[in-house]
Amino acid sequence: MRLSEIYSKPERVLSFEIFPPKHDEELKNIDATLEVLCDLKPDYISVTFGAGGSSNNNKTIALARKIKDEYKVEPVVHLTCMTYSKAEIDEFCKELADNGIENILALRGDYNPNVPPKDDFKHASELIEYIKPKTSFCIAGACYPECHPESSDKISEFINLRKKVDAGAEVLLSQLFFDNKFFYDFVENARIAGINVPITPGIMPVLNAGQIKRMVTTCGASLPTRFERIIERYGDNKEALFDAGMYYAISQIIDLLANGSDGIHLYTMNNPVVARRICDAIKNII
């Protein structure tokens, strides 16, 4: 089923993100995770995609095919472009189509010092513009409630986001954030800018102090005062921080749903315990 069809249903959308395990043996054992995730009845599961080299990306395709064929859940495959040529993107798209994949999340990708960028694609909007006329995929794009870390200002952020949508993105999935006000303001400004596709908030429960530092550094997400107090109070207590991080994420989700969000995209970190606990907490309101 295409994402556009999923988002046209009256029910709110529940989706997860997972990543392919690095080692082949772990890929064989991914079923334990998938059994829990798919039992939670998500509308789709997105699968991340690597930069440079085909090994990890082959795992992405194999994992997406498993989700679709064995678990009967719609996969959405991430497709990055910064380190690939047009010919390589053509080959990836052909392989995805040959494996029955209908939906992709088009991304520029992060800079990797070990994998030099190529010149064919500078932005995700260029990737969307390139593949939209050549393929039958339903294409999703990414958005940043607090602005992309490389954006010069909010105006340029929405100009560039509008380019993605005009090029063919039919759904937008947000980067993580910890203050819902950023998301609400972002959606309001997107609508003013004429961006009228579904915008789904992405939520990642923060479960340890190291993870918090990585997320803030790589994503540019700011930490509200009440979240900083949680870190100060429970940062040295692994179990307590896990519980506090879970409750914080659940409270975010409840507030988003109560304020009309069309769904929730949960960054699971391949942790089925996290997904189960959150879904149990919101099962009566989503």
What does this protein structure show overall?
- This protein is α/β, with parallel strands linked by helices and 286 residues long.
- It contains 12 helices and 8 strands.
- An 8-stranded parallel β-barrel has the order 1-2-3-4-5-6-7-8, surrounded by 5 helices.
- The two termini are 20 Å apart.
- The mean pLDDT is 91.
List the helices and strands and how they pair.
Blueprint: H1 3-6, E1 13-18, H2 24-28, H3 31-39, E2 44-47, H4 55-71, E3 74-80, H5 86-98, E4 103-107, H6 124-131, E5 138-143, H7 154-167, E6 171-176, H8 180-192, E7 199-203, H9 209-219, H10 225-234, H11 238-258, E8 263-267, H12 272-282
Parallel strand pairs: 1-2, 1-8, 2-3, 3-4, 4-5, 5-6, 6-7, 7-8
Helix pairs in contact: 3-12, 6-7, 10-11, 11-12
Q: What keyword list fits this structure?
A:
286 residues, alpha/beta, 8 strands, 12 helices, 48% helix, 15% strand
Major sheet: order of its strands?
Answer: 1-2-3-4-5-6-7-8
Rg (CA only):
18 Å
Helix content: 40-55%
**Total DSSP E strands:** 8
Order of helices and strands: HEHHEHEHEHEHEHEHHHEH
Class of secondary structure makeup: alpha/beta
Tally the helices. 12
Kindly summarize this structure in a few lines.
This protein is α/β, with parallel strands linked by helices. It has helices spanning 3-6, 24-28, 31-39, 55-71, 86-98, 124-131, 154-167, 180-192, 209-219, 225-234, 238-258, 272-282, and strands at 13-18, 44-47, 74-80, 103-107, 138-143, 171-176, 199-203, 263-267.
